[in-house]
Amino acid sequence: MSDAIEEKIKNYRTAPFDARFPNTNQTRNCFQNYLDFHRCNNALSAKGQDVSPCQWYQRVYKSLCPMSWVGKWDDQVADGSFPGRV
Amino acid sequence: MFRLLARQAKKNPGLIPQFFFISLGLGGASLYLVRLAVSPYVVWNKKNNPEPWSKLDPSYQYKFVAVTTDYKNLKKDGPDY
C-alpha cells in the first residue's frame, strides 16, 4: 500500500480531479485536504506508524490553497486555535 | 381547490396552458430545492454528520451531464488512515 502511495507522491504533478468537489469553487477541497493531512498525521502517529503517506494530502493542499491561508492555518494549529476538527 | 381550477379551466380553456406552465415552473423549482437539500454538500446535523461529502464513493457523479470526465474509472487518491 505504501509503495503505491510513494509512487504516486513521486510522480505527483498537480491535484487530481476529486469527484467530491466537481465545481469551480475548490475552497472545500483545499480545506478538506488540509484537515486530512493533519488527521492522517495524528491517526498514524497515534498508531505508531510511519506518517510519510500523509505527504499526499500535503502536496494536494499546497497545490490548491492560497499560501496566505496555509500560513494562517499553520499558525492557528501551532497556537491551538485552529477551528477545524483535527 | 383543484375542482375550482378545473371548473374555471372548463369555462375559460385558455387557462389550461397557464396552469400547466405555472405548475411546471413551481414543481421544477421545488424539485430542484429538494435535490439541493438532500445533496451531500449541505450539513444539516453538525454533531452526527459533520462532513457528508467524505462518505461519498470516489466515482460519485453530482452533475447531470459528464462531458469529459470518465466517472466510472475514478479511484480514491489519498492513503487511508
Describe this structure as you would to a colleague.
Chain B: This is NADH dehydrogenase. Chain B: It holds the Pfam family B12D. The complex is a heterodimer of chains A (86) and B (81). By secondary structure, chain A is mainly α. Chain A contains four helices and no strands. Chain A has helices at 2-10, 27-47, 55-64, 67-79. In chain A, helix 2 (27-47) runs antiparallel to helix 3. The two termini of chain A are 24 Å apart. The model of chain A has no long low-confidence stretch (mean pLDDT 90). By secondary structure, chain B is an all-alpha fold. Helices cover 41% and strands 0% of the residues of chain B. The longest helix of chain B has 23 residues, at 15-37. The N and C termini of chain B lie far apart (57 Å). The mean pLDDT of chain B is 86. Classes of the chains: A mainly alpha (86), B mainly alpha (81). The A-B interface holds A 1-2, 5, 8, 16-22, 28, 32-33, 36, 39-40, 43-44, 53-54, 56-57, 60, 85 and B 40-41, 50-51, 53-54, 56, 58-63, 69, 71, 74, 77-81.
Oligomer description: heterodimer
What percentage of amino acids of chain A are in beta strands?
Answer: under 5%
Gap from first CA to last CA of chain B: 57 Å
The ordered H/E elements of chain A are HHHH
Number of helix segments of chain B? 2
- The total count of helices of chain A amounts to 4
Class based on secondary structure composition and strand pairing of chain B: mainly alpha
Taking all Cα atoms into account, the compactness measure Rg of chain B is 21 Å
